[in-house]
């Protein structure tokens, strides 16, 4: 049982209880739609009249609607569904190369997006983000808020960016500035944290039921997001999840973003895989492949590309074995483009994982590829808004 934190405990006033019940009903409709009032009442042990009251409220707010189910003889049952377009969320995926600003409904369906190159000048990038958010805001009513995913360290309480290594941006009050520019609620988080949240809210059903998992985001760098008891674990000042810089050993093919050749990131990132491929390649081609090209080659059967990926998968598995030994999560999810090559890397990764967890006596940790596809970070940004909308106050 979780020990109550008296510093944070709120006395449950009747409006708090009403709010909790409302979130429970809303989440039942979101996860189990179509669902009847009677089923919700049966599963939650809330009184039928309470459920009906809340349903009326949610209908008035435009969050859910009613449809007719199949008749089993008598009057067809009335079923409840989430109204996806009733409210919209804006997601901003601030990447090292490109930034995407998109608007989606509450089930994560993107309806419009704009992409531009991220400018190394923080002010220029901010102005472009604010401009596109404002543009979308003008075209769609009922915007619930803005979620921003960034490749760096974020203070979870203020939404300020503490450090983005790629651009060397420090101490940027992103949430405050974007809130002032757009007058919308703004939530900012690290990209791997946001991606982990997206798996929790929008991912495959078997993941949504997992309360403790770690997401490994393999990109140019390597980040991890920890979901602990159904929410992001931030640590002090947002510093948790920096497993990308845990020491694996010497002899990595590249350096990590901070310049070390011993970090997990230097062994298992996209850049590491590219470097392995380039060093094996006999042709004297001048241009380096992109990771996307490397994946395509491997999927088409190129043995050099496959070897480069398999070696990278070995180090992914090695790092995951360290996470498993220290945290014993229910599952680990591998996200990023590399998930596309899962059938080519899964065996190598699992072999390295099991070979390195033997001494701890742990049974095997479940490892899945992400199913969020190319848009992992954007889905992460959108889920920051969803989590705020649907999360129960009981997690506070
Ligand atoms: Zn490092």
Key descriptive features of the protein:
single chain; 396 residues; alpha/beta; five-stranded mixed β-sheet; 13 helices; 16 strands; globular; binds zinc ion
Write the layout of secondary structure elements.
Blueprint: H1 14-32, E1 35-36, H2 37-44, H3 48-60, E2 64-68, E3 78-82, E4 88-94, E5 98-105, E6 110-117, H4 122-139, E7 143-150, E8 153-155, E9 160-164, E10 169-172, H5 174-182, E11 186-190, H6 191-202, H7 205-208, E12 213-218, E13 222-228, E14 231-232, H8 264-268, H9 270-280, H10 291-299, H11 303-327, E15 331-335, H12 342-357, E16 366-369, H13 376-390
Parallel strand pairs: 4-7, 7-11, 12-15, 15-16
Antiparallel strand pairs: 1-3, 2-3, 4-5, 5-6, 8-9, 9-10, 12-13, 13-14
Bound molecules: zinc ion (ZN).
The site of zinc ion has 6 residues, from loops.
Task: Give the distance, in angstroms, between the N- and C-terminal Cα atoms.
Answer: 15 Å
Rg over C-alpha atoms, rounded to the nearest angstrom: 23 Å
- The low-confidence runs, each spanning 5 or more residues with pLDDT under 50, are none
The helix/strand order is HEHHEEEEEHEEEEHEHHEEEHHHHEHEH
Helix content: 40-55%
Structure class: alpha/beta
**Biggest beta sheet summary:** 5 strands, mixed
What's the tally of helices? Answer: 13
Tally the beta strands. 16
Distinct small-molecule ligands in the complex: zinc ion
User: Kindly state the mean pLDDT as a whole number?
Assistant: 88
User: Overall 3D geometry?
Assistant: globular
Strand content is 15-25%
For the biggest β-sheet, the strand order reads: 6-5-4-7-11
């Amino acid at each position: 049982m979780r020990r109550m934190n008296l510093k944070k405990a709120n006395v449950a006033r009747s409006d708090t209880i009403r709010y909790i019940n409302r979130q429970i009903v809303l989440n039942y409709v979101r996860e189990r739609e179509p669902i009847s009032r009677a089923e919700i009442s049966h599963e939650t042990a809330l009184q039928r009249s309470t459920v009906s009251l809340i349903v009326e409220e949610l209908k008035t707010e435009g969050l859910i609607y009613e449809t007719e189910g199949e008749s089993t003889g008598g009057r067809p049952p009335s079923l409840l569904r989430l109204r996806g377009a009733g409210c919209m969320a804006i997601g901003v995926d601030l990447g090292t190369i490109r930034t995407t600003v998109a608007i989606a409904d509450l089930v994560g369906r993107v309806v419009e997006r704009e992409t531009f190159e991220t400018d190394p000048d923080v002010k220029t990038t901010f102005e472009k983000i604010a401009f596109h958010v404002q543009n979308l805001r003008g075209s769609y009513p009922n915007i619930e808020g803005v979620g921003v995913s960034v490749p760096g360290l974020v203070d979870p309480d203020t939404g300020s960016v503490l450090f983005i290594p790629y651009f060397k941006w420090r101490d940027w009050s992103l949430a405050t500035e974007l809130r002032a520019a757009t007058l919308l609620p703004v939530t900012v988080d690290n990209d791997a944290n946001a991606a982990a949240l997206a798996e929790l809210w929008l991912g495959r059903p078997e993941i949504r039921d997992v309360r403790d998992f770690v997401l490994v985001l393999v990109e140019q760098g390597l980040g991890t997001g920890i979901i602990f008891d159904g929410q992001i674990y931030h640590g002090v000042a947002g510093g948790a999840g920096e497993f990308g810089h845990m020491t694996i050993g010497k002899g990595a093919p590249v350096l990590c973003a901070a310049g070390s050749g011993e970090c997990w990131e230097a062994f298992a990132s996209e850049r590491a895989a590219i470097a392995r491929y380039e060093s094996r390649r006999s042709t004297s081609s001048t241009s380096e492949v992109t990771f996307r090209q490397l994946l395509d080659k491997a999927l088409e059967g190129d043995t050099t590309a496959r070897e480069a990926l398999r070696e990278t998968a070995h180090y992914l598995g090695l790092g995951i074995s360290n996470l498993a030994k220290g945290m014993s999560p229910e599952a680990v999810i591998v996200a990023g483009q590399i998930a596309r090559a899962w059938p080519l890397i899964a065996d190598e990764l699992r072999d390295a994982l099991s070979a390195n967890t033997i001494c701890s006596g742990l049974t095997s940790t479940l490892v899945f590829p992400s199913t969020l596809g190319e848009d992992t970070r954007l889905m992460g940004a959108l889920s920051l808004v969803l989590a705020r909308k649907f999360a129960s106050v009981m997690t506070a």
